[in-house]
């Protein structure tokens, strides 16, 4: 038989052949089996052990189906499929957990740029001597696109707008898979969306991806699902505390000159390396491993903060050094050791009085042939984009013995 059939918990049997099959066999793609899709969310949702590997296959499967529904040419279809398959190829350990570390410590190694380097054959991120061949595998099939076209598509710089929108838009194959998959494995019913309907109501019009007017409800359902999954799962305060603890362990290691190649590692390797360092990193890893997590002392909503306080916290969000100074000051104020008080933020947009509306808004093709932005067609889309997700904007956590004192002093320490 040519290729292979993989049985997926969400999409059922998926047949891999040709270029897709050869890319899945690469060490870089196989590495994704060992990176959890939802980082440390399994500490709150025990079923959330699914990996970037299965999500990437799911995104590819939806891309293949969408290509067929909207009538892409064979070359465009394969470009979208390869882009969907490889869109997460550069992810480091625990997925998005270490985003702030990439921004502050190793800017050139964030998952988007790393993904580009892997696809273009500039780097072999694995320990396998068979790595570093993705670029030549793509070229060997003779399609009418290059590895650079794939990398550009993943970075949101597609030559054809509709291809970019299918991978990075309001309704894209990445989100369609992760919302369904994450809802399934966390057991949270909010992420359920009408995939079959969505695939039927999307089309290409004047070079853009649009949704038929009759499909507006399906898009509204997806936006509600996304908004609720962000509050309920992705920014669950206990998940953020665990991620914050692991991030502090890695920050401490980097400051001491260790683990600068953490971005090459998979989840379990990072934990082992941090635990071997002793001190704060080892203690944090042990706490995460046995779920002895810090407790939330403060969960402040954006509404409960003055404009000046928001500005101060936004500066700390953007500057890791400033955030570390505040954490040290809070620890000193309550008699805790360095690293025992952590300050976490939900998405920075919440700190601003008016969250920016995303510019990648999908347009609606009305019955009379006119095209309107979704927010003009349905008030629900506007409301969802303005909804504060999640309910907290600032989180301060520590071992439970410091919680009462932190609640008393946090405002004075941070804002005086």
From TrEMBL:
A matching Pfam family: HD
MF-aspect GO terms: dGTPase activity; transferase activity
UniProtKB keywords: Transferase
Protein name as it appears in the record: Nucleotidyltransferase
Keyword flag Transferase: yes
UniProt-listed GO biological process terms: dGTP catabolic process
HD domain span: 52-179
Stored Gene3D superfamilies: Hypothetical protein af1432
